[in-house]
Amino acid sequence: MAEKVHRVAVVGGGISGLAACRFVQKRLQDSCSSGSKRIILIEQGQRLGGWLHSLRTPEGFVFEAGPSSIRTVGSKGRATLRLVDELGLRQHVVPCSSLAIKNRYLYTNGSLLRLPNHPLKVLGSPLMRSAVFAFLREWTVPRSQQPDESIHSFFTRRFSPVVADTLTDALSIGIFGGRSQSLSIKSCFPFLHEYEQKYGSIGLGMLREMLASRSGQEKNEKNQNTKTTKNEAAAEEEEETDEGYLSPAVQEMQKMQVYSFREGVETLSRALEQKIREDEHTDILLNTAVERMDQERDGTMSLSLGHGMTVRAEKVISALPSHALAHCLRHHPTLEQDMLKIPFASLALVHLAYTEPLLPAGVEGFGYLVPAMEKQPILGVQFNSSAFPQQDPQPGCTRFTVMMRVEKGQENRTKDEWQAIALDSLQRHLRLPPAKTAALASPARVNVSVDLNAIPQYVVGHAALVDSIRGALQRDFPSLHLVGNSWGGVGVNDCVENAWRTVHRLQL
């Protein structure tokens, strides 16, 4: 009897693996005979969803061990919104509050500085005035001749050291959990690198893109009006093939800018898992690690699972982090070494919940970030109740998420130690009056999550390294394809869109 060969094996059950598996299902939905298995999803852990991990406490608070919100902007935002729409999650979506969208803070010079949300307010801040003057002279700065450089170097050169030390360092922390001095401008903010190389100026590039976006929006609105005259079946068929089509629900959700779900971001991965399990032609293996991957002469791939078990597939999509995939390809020393060159940041998150309002008067927004120059033990704080009050058990509550980087030698810190650092930082940074300071010390619920190797760090040279890895895979493992945050963006939207593009390039 011939060995069963799956059409596609997806390795890794985080958001990238789940999205890739679902997109493969949709491509193969009419191409498999009854009773045969065409897809297999393999996950080492006991649950699917990866870093998307939401907890509803007994008191009714939502804590996020991973990302707490998703943006709607751009093609990547639309890719996730389409998935939300397909999964029937529109009624579970909650928008970020308008105050949280408008108000974001920096901790600088010992106090919280609200970033201006209106052009006329920019000149009221010495820090922002210097940023404006730097922006006005930016168009005179010549292009860099280097293939890549750090975010800090890029903004120092094109704007000023003050902008690099404060605004861009905080931005690097908020997205990557890393420092701008080591992260790559080309890999972390490729559009800024492209603006400089293509237009010679960030400002000119932004202006050109804004004008092009308006023109494209008018064209899209015209297309949308045309499509509304078609019957529903034709519109659904076109949505599968036309990336530009936006359903009315997606168009409505795009207006939110930032959103989450009433039960947390893990709602998305749970719904994906449920949808995937509905397909009788898909197998899911949990608590199963892939130990080795081999490219066979007949074009298939063999996955060794341990205990003598082997899975064969025509195509393999790896959603593993780079260091885990390196282990599976350790018989290819060059690939293993290159994949292990991608560093990861480890994070500790301390979630604190209170049944009373604790933010200082006049402070309400998404939260604040702490530039490295401030030499503080935390990266920043999210004001979760301000952003998503729908995730509290009742009005008037306060939820904080204090973010800290786990440095070498800190892996064995206890949860009490992380909590003490978080509370001390909040007390100093928020400058609460005595009554609120006392309340801060006694949260209604605390949760501490430590995630080692949480976020890949796209250091200078990352793009060239990934190109080299992809080239070696195409040569020696042509049936192996990459998705996940080690390669093409660390956010939820990055992972979903990368999975979509990878699956739609496959020859199935």
From TrEMBL:
An annotated GO BP: protoporphyrinogen IX biosynthetic process
Bias (Acidic residues) ranges: 234-243
UniProt enzyme class: oxidoreductase
Gene3D superfamilies (alphabetical): FAD/NAD(P)-binding domain (3.50.50.60)
The enzyme's E.C. designation: 1.3.3.4
Entries under InterPro entries matching the protein: Amino_oxidase, FAD/NAD-bd_sf, Protoporphyrinogen_oxidase, Zeta_carotene_desat/Oxidored
UniProt keyword annotations, A-Z: FAD, Flavoprotein, Heme biosynthesis, Oxidoreductase, Porphyrin biosynthesis
Pfam families for this protein: Amino_oxidase
Role summary: Catalyzes the 6-electron oxidation of protoporphyrinogen-IX to form protoporphyrin-IX.
Protein name per the record: Protoporphyrinogen oxidase
Species name: Acanthamoeba castellanii (strain ATCC 30010 / Neff)
